Structures are given as structure tokens and as C-alpha cells.
Amino acid sequence: METSPTVHVALVDDDAHYRSLFSDSIARHGGMAVDYAATSGEDMMAWLQSHRPDVLLVDLGLPGASGLDVVRFGAKRWPQMPMGVVTLFSDEPNVISCLEAGATGYILKQTSPLEIAPVVQQMVDGHAPMSPSIARYVLQRLRQSTSHRSTKPLPPEVALTPREHTILNHIARGFRVAEVAQQLDLQATTVSSHLKKIYEKLSVHSKTEAVYEAVRMGLILPPSSH
Known about the structure:
With 226 residues, the protein is α/β, with parallel strands linked by helices. The chain has ten helices and five strands. α4 links the parallel β4 and β5. The termini are far apart. 38% of the residues are buried. The model has no long low-confidence stretch (mean pLDDT 83).
């Protein structure tokens, strides 16, 4: 007896070749299914009005509304939904804009389109997957930001509590919510609640963006590359 997929994926890409590769990879993984595959940003945003997939995959170079528009819309409509950008674009403006908009991961199509299913699973597990070159760039930018950050005192509404600071440091080191809960002897729901408050304080929508903003503002040190 076949079991229903446990991970529901939606993707938007105007390239039929990549849509087919992604869908096949996800179908072969087991326990996953593509619920909706759109060819335009407008179609995906219309679908997201009333549907919330477990993971959303977004190409940037779309006709009409861009992939960045979709990421911004998704982050606003479903703040806790993991969103992975899967694109040919590796330039600085696109990477930073997507992460700031709420993207959870950033994967280059050149890396290996057939590896999209493991990427989806990583996002479901609470990770922020990135292609190696993108991860190196983001880490370098985070480190540079610490040497240029403002020395002005932070407004009270932005200051993190000791518990929030500890949790965000664990997230920055790559730990999942469940792992943070276990290490700090907390319930996973408690950690998630603290994360939500961190998002509100930093005006962000994802763990990746929270770490980026916290480092930029000098609240935490950049994660180690080791």
C-alpha cells in the first residue's frame, strides 16, 4: 500500500527542462511530491494565496514578476515556509536581495539540478543549503560586515535576551531547531517561539536572514568556516 508524500513541494521555473529535472528528482526521492509547478511568478503567487507547500523552489529569471517578487510574496504570505532559490545567477545583488527577502537557501543550477531533492530535505530539516561558492561569499560578506558595523547603541526593541542570543548563535552554527532544543534542554516549540521573537525584533522572515542581520548589526559573531 502506497503512502502519501510527507513533503509537499511547489516550484516555479519557466524552463521546461529544469522543471522536468526537478520534478523527477523529487519523485525519485520518495516521501516527496511536487504539488504545483508554475511557469510564471504571477501564477505561483496566485496559487500561494490559498496553498502553503512544505518547501517552495523559485527560479529568479522569470518572465513578468521575478523570482525575487515571488520570494517576497511567499515570505509575507507564509512567514515560516522554507524557500529555496534555484538559479543560474550568482551575482552579489541577487544573492543578497534574495536572502534579505526571506530565502532559506540559494542553489546554483550549474551545481547539479538532480540534487534538488536532498536540498529540499535539508530545508525541511531546518537547514539553509547553499552552493559552496555562494556559502563562501556569504560568509566573507558577514565577516566584512563585522569590521564596518555601526558602534551606535542598538534600540531597546532590537536587543536580544540572553536566551535569544544563545539560540541564534546555535542557529548560526548550523544546528536545527530540534538540535538546539536538545542541547539547551528546551522544548522544540519553545525554541521556535524564541525564533519568532527574534524574527520580529530583526524584521526578518528566515533563519538565514536572521543570522545575516544579527552579524551585520554586531549582535553575534559570524559563523566559523570550520
